[in-house]
Design goal:
Elements (H helix, E strand, L loop, with lengths): L1 H15 L10 H14 L8 H25 L18 H21 L1 H12 L4 H8 L3 H21 L1
């Protein structure tokens, strides 16, 4: 149990490094939510460490996307202070849209290139290195490098056209 939690915490720290500084979800909260989802998944038949990494990366993606959707759907007003528009730097809301757009693009990518999608999940959401992702996917590092490179190009094109 402590090893699983420690590994989740390492993955979450890597994942949260890409989030904006004022993100409301803390690393520990991400770990706890992912851990609860892992513990509650009765249908998963754990195969090995690689399988754990793959599922953990998917769950962290889901937690971050769910959090982005929650922030996006919050009602206006309430906890916010009125500020003149000129004084505001509009950089937090686009991050939410970017994460949701990335999630939708990954779903489209998974339809025709599931391994590329897995590589992105493991590298971006799971924070795994090329070598770790290769171990998880049981392929060579060259394949992961190629899949990572082509997936990033496809995602860049897909996200810039939407």
């Amino acid at each position: 149990m402590p090893l699983v939690y420690e590994e989740l915490h390492r993955l979450a720290r890597q994942c949260m490094r890409r989030e904006r500084a004022e993100h409301t979800l803390q690393t520990t909260a991400l770990v706890n939510e992912a851990y609860l989802r892992l513990a509650n998944s009765t249908r998963v038949q754990w195969q090995d460490r690689a399988h754990f990494f793959a599922i953990a990366a998917q769950l962290m993606r889901r937690v971050l996307v769910d959090e982005a959707r929650r922030r996006l759907n919050q009602k206006r007003g309430g906890e916010f202070t009125r500020v003149e528009i000129d004084a505001v730097q509009l950089n937090s809301q686009p991050r939410v849209f970017e994460l949701l757009a990335l999630d939708q693009a990954l779903e489209r990518l998974a339809e025709f290139a599931p391994r590329k999608c897995k590589v992105v999940e493991l590298r971006f959401f799971g924070g795994l290195s090329i070598e770790e992702a290769a171990l998880v996917l049981e392929v060579s590092t060259d394949i992961v490098k190629r899949e990572w490179r082509t997936a990033k190009l496809w995602l860049l094109q897909e996200l810039s056209s939407s």
